[in-house]
Amino acid sequence: MIKLAPSLLAADFSRLGEEIKIIEEAGADYLHLDVMDGHFVPNLTFGSGLVKDLRPHSNLFFDVHLMIENPDQFAEAFVVAGADLLCVHQETCPHLHRTIQNIKELGVKAAVSLNPASSLCGIEEILPELDMVLLMSVNPGFGGQKFIPSVLKKVQRLHKMIREQELDIDIQVDGGICLSNVGDVVTAGANVLVAGSAVFGAPDIKKAVTDLKEAAEKSYQAYWQEELKKVVQPLGES
Prior knowledge:
Helix content is 39%, strand content 18%.
């Protein structure tokens, strides 16, 4: 099942409550919250206080992406504030397994993110511990960037790794997602799509959510129909 996670970073902060309500009513699944510290990435956004303020006003799944150094230091504050999932960067966690275990002990889902130039080798051993892997399709720090096409092959490799280990892990892609590439991203193996400018920057936010989900679902169904044919045809031949 495809899940759409509009990124709050692209929203109009003077109308947050209104815009979150629009995406929720339109069928968005997650609210993606990019937390940036100005150190790991060259931008500064918000902290756990905003998550706490938003939580009473939305039933969306709060997908909190910690683009920060020392995420262990702040994990509990975000969980208390209302996060449903915490995603940390492999690049900032020297003891990644310990960090993931700490997050799970707080009672929420755990995910790891990789920058475009980071190898999947860094998370191969910890895959069974994860609920989701986030692959960045832009260099993190700012919204509105163009999608890096080479990430599609990385999504395919990750999808293969997950299937070979028979794991139940979501693959999320974040950065430059729009109608023109959403089909390619889904076909590569992703099932959770972060979209910022393509949603909150659209003239009609509700329509943008609906169009993205419909396009993604169409590609997802077509992909699995082709995969099914690959299985059924050999069985019929035998």
